[in-house]
Amino acid sequence: MLPIAFAPSYAHPLPAGHRFPMLKYELLPEQLLREGTVAAADFFVATPPPAADILLVHEDAYYERLRHGQLTRPEERATGFPWSAALFEREITILGGTIEAARRALAHGVAFNIAGGTHHAFRARGEGFCLLNDQAVAAAWLLAHVPAIRQVLIVDLDVHQGNGTAAIFRREPRVFTCSVHGARNYPARKETSDLDLPLPDGTDDASYLQLLAETLPRLLDSVRPDFVFYQAGVDVLATDKLGHLSLTRAGCRRRDELVLGLCHRHQLPVVVCMGGGYSERIIDIVEAHVNTFRVAAELWG
């Protein structure tokens, strides 16, 4: 069993200029089913959570303005999306998918949100195509509702720093945030994660994987998490238009093997969100993401 949150409407309300990178949300499940990595029964339809769950992380005034389409023009521009009711529904559905994935990971060891990873959203504002922070909300939900979860680790390997997540949990010792990202990439103004590992442009497989292999085992030993969230962006690829790193598809898969292999060996439940991916060819994006599912299926299948 490899539980995967999916909602066919994820890509629907987006403006035309955003539809190409969002196409992966439709192609990923098709490829996973076609090749037999997962079965149709592995998918569950994401649904919005109660507002009370969202407000574990986000400020009430911001949530209400977002819900009613009352963001200012500068706020809207910062998110990269024009507001619509469909967009708001998409954002809260993503949150519900990650919360439900957390529930299922507790039972099955691993679960995916085929969207998710909206790590640029802060408590009271959105940025960088992120309006609400799904991993932050799900982490707060676990701490509020599951007594066995006392410490959460967020491993963010998207090429862009998880600035919103870092800011949200700056004063929350029960959530440890780790971000490995391009030093000169978005956002220009970085927040302070519990552990930031900024990388120079052009970082290749060998350097990247050595850093992870040296860092992640020590991190598990020091943080001693009960639950892990993994942001598995594939914008680290050399083919990515926005990434500026130089990982191959094989290197990206090895990255997934390192993270998920450690979680599996330590019997740590993990939720994986797909994060960014902006290569010119959609096949490069989809194949790199599918590799993450393949690795999980080999470990937990």
Keywords, separated by commas or semicolons:
eight-stranded parallel sheet; alpha/beta; 301 residues; single chain
What does this structure look like?
The chain has 301 residues and is α/β, with parallel strands linked by helices. The protein has a single domain (4-300), classed as Histone deacetylase domain (Arginase, Chain A), CATH 3.40.800. 44% of the residues lie in helices and 12% in strands. Strands 2-1-3-8-7-4-5-6 form an eight-stranded parallel beta sheet, sandwiched between helices. Helix 10 links the parallel strand 7 (227-231) and strand 8 (270-273). The chain is globular. The protein starts with a strand and ends with a helix. 48% of the residues are buried. Residues 8-20 have low confidence and may be disordered.
Secondary-structure map with pairings?
Layout: E1 4-6, H1 19-22, H2 24-35, E2 43-45, H3 51-54, H4 60-67, H5 73-79, H6 85-108, E3 110-113, H7 134-145, E4 152-156, H8 163-168, E5 175-182, E6 195-199, H9 205-223, E7 227-231, H10 249-265, E8 270-273, H11 282-300
Parallel strand pairs: 1-2, 1-3, 3-8, 4-5, 4-7, 5-6, 7-8
Helix pairs in contact: 2-11, 6-7, 9-10, 10-11
Summarize the model shown.
This protein is an alpha/beta fold and 301 residues long.
CATH first level: which class?
Answer: Alpha Beta
Looking at the structure, the CATH topology is Arginase, Chain A
- SSE series: EHHEHHHHEHEHEEHEHEH
> Could you tell me the number of beta strands?
8
Overall body shape:
globular
Low-confidence stretches: 8-20
- Alpha-beta classification: alpha/beta
Number of helices: 11
Task: State the CATH superfamily name.
Answer: Histone deacetylase domain
Radius of gyration: 17 Å
Mean pLDDT: 93
CATH architecture: 3-Layer(aba) Sandwich
Q: Please estimate the helix content.
A: 40-55%
Order of neighbouring strands in the sheet with most strands: 2-1-3-8-7-4-5-6
**What is the first-to-last residue Cα distance?**
6 Å
Q: What's the main sheet like?
A: 8 strands, parallel
Total domain units: 1
Strand content: 5-15%
Family: Belongs to the histone deacetylase family.
Keywords: Hydrolase
InterPro entries: HDAC_classIV (IPR044150), HDACs (IPR000286), His_deacetylse_dom (IPR023801), His_deacetylse_dom_sf (IPR037138), Ureohydrolase_dom_sf (IPR023696)
Protein name: Histone deacetylase
